[in-house]
Amino acid sequence: MSLLMPEFAKYLNLTISKSGKPEEPNNDTLEVNLSIVMNTANTLAPSWTATQGLPDLKGLLSAVSQSGQSPSVVARVVAFSMASQSGHGDMIVVSDGRGKYTEIEKSVLGPAYDSMRDKSLSNDEVIRQILALGSQITSNQ
Q1: What percent of the chain has pLDDT over 70?
Q2: Residue 122 backbone phi and psi in degrees, to 5
Q3: Dihedral (C-alpha) 25, 30, 32, 34: value to the nearest 10 degrees?
Q4: Closest to 90 in 3D by CA, of 99, 101, 98
Q5: Per-residue pLDDT tens for 64-117?
Q6: C-alpha angle 110/114/41, rounded to 5°?
Q7: In the chain, how long is the greatest CA-to-CA distance?
């Protein structure tokens, strides 16, 4: 294996059959190897952060009476998110320059979607019902 290969790519190694063809991974391989990678994907949405994206961001923000945050503030939230076992697929907003952060996927966006869709089924419920129809059709054949 190449030293340049990212660490997570090692999870994608496949076994080779006796005929020399790659075998598809079984559920054990996927659950053990990919769950570590797949279950930790969170999205980070930092507010104004002093990086080199804009020259003299601190000066620009102070000109409009705003403050930014240092990259270390965002890095701490990233480290916490990576170490935490509780958040999976969350959208985390980091702002205020003092390390203030909040998850908004479930606490803000989810309720907003629920209030917007009235009495209609959620997309997940529609998929569940469609899959149930498919299993009814196959069991009747």
Answers
A1: 72
A2: -70, 160
A3: 120
A4: 101
A5: 988 888 888 889 888 888 887 777 778 888 887 666 788 888 888 888 877 887
A6: 20
A7: 71
CA separation (Å) from 100 to 7, 13, 18, 56, 88?
31, 39, 55, 23, 19
Q: What residues does each domain of the chain span?
A: 1-38, 40-103, 106-141
Region of 20 (left: φ > 0; alpha: ψ -120 to 50; beta: rest) is: left
DSSP string, the chain: --TTS-GGGGGG---B-TTSPBPPP-HHHIIIIIHHHHTT--EEEE-SB-STTSTTHHHHHHHTT---B-HHHHHHHHHHHHH-SS-SS-EEEEETTTTEEEE-IIIIIHHHHHHHTTTSPPHHHHHHHHHHHHHHHHHH-
pTM over 0.85: no
- Determine the Cα–Cα distance for residues 34 and 46; give it in Å rounded to an integer: 27
Read off the tokens for 70. Answer: 């240092």
